[in-house]
Every structure is written in C-alpha cells, then in structure tokens.
Amino acid sequence: MFLIVSRYLIPKGYRGITLFPFVILRNPPDKANKVLVNHEKIHIRQQLEFLILPFFLWYFVEYGIRLIQYKDKNRAYRNISFEREAYSNEFNLEYIKDRKLWGFRKYL
Q1: Please, which residues have CB within 8 angstroms of residue 89's CB and are 6 or more apart in sequence?
Q2: Helices (H), 1-108
Q3: Which pairing describes strands 22-25 and 2-5: parallel, antiparallel, or unpaired?
C-alpha cells in the first residue's frame, strides 16, 4: 500500500480513495489518521479479493442499484456493501487481521 496526498484526485466531499495499490488522501494530516487509513486498508483487501478490476465493476453496479433504491447519492454510496463493511469496522484496527475471506458478503 502506498499513501499519496493529492487534493486534486479526490472528489469533493471525500477524504480518500483507494485504487490498489494506492491510497490517495485529500489532506496531509490524514496520513496519521489511523481510522481513515484502516478504512482504506479494508478496501485494499476487498480489491485484492476481487482481483481489482471486478471490484470496481461490482462497486459501480451496486452504486447504481442503491441510487435507484434510495434516490440519494450519499445514501447510495453509504449502502454499497464494500462501504458498509469498511465503515462498520474502521475503528477496529485489528479487523484486517481477523477478517474472513469475502467479509463484505455480510453487508449485502
């Protein structure tokens, strides 16, 4: 995992994005934010499980389904199974060690 800081690569309203093997953060102080970095590490693991490209396909298809379901961009984003797993476990800094394969399925 490589941590990069660039406010220009992150969509407005977001603090970070993971594009394996890179975690791109908007603000330099966020590199020290263990919770945010842990959230992004969960996405690294998810992307590896899906062999990267299929992860993004699933992510955007599910986002589209959630957008139709909730008719709200933020609510759709927060209810993507990958995001639900990451947000639910971002404070557990040991989660990656104990996470089972395909852990996101619990959040479908």
Answers
A1: 38, 42, 95, 99
A2: 34-49, 53-70, 73-78, 81-89, 95-98
A3: parallel
CA-to-CA distance for 35 and 24, rounded, in angstroms? 15
Give me the pLDDT at residue 67, please: 98
Structure tokens at 67: 């957008």
Q: Give pLDDT, residue 53.
A: 96
Low-confidence stretches of the chain (pLDDT beneath 70): none
**4 phi, psi to nearest 5 deg:** -125, 145
pTM over 0.90? The answer is: yes
Element (H, E) at 2: strand 2-5
Nearest-angstrom CA–CA distance, 9 and 24: 8
Instruction: Give the DSSP letter of residue 100.
Output: P
> What's the Cα-to-Cα distance from 89 to each of 40, 55, 82, 98, rounded to whole Å?
11, 19, 11, 11
First vs last Cα of the chain: how many Å apart? 26
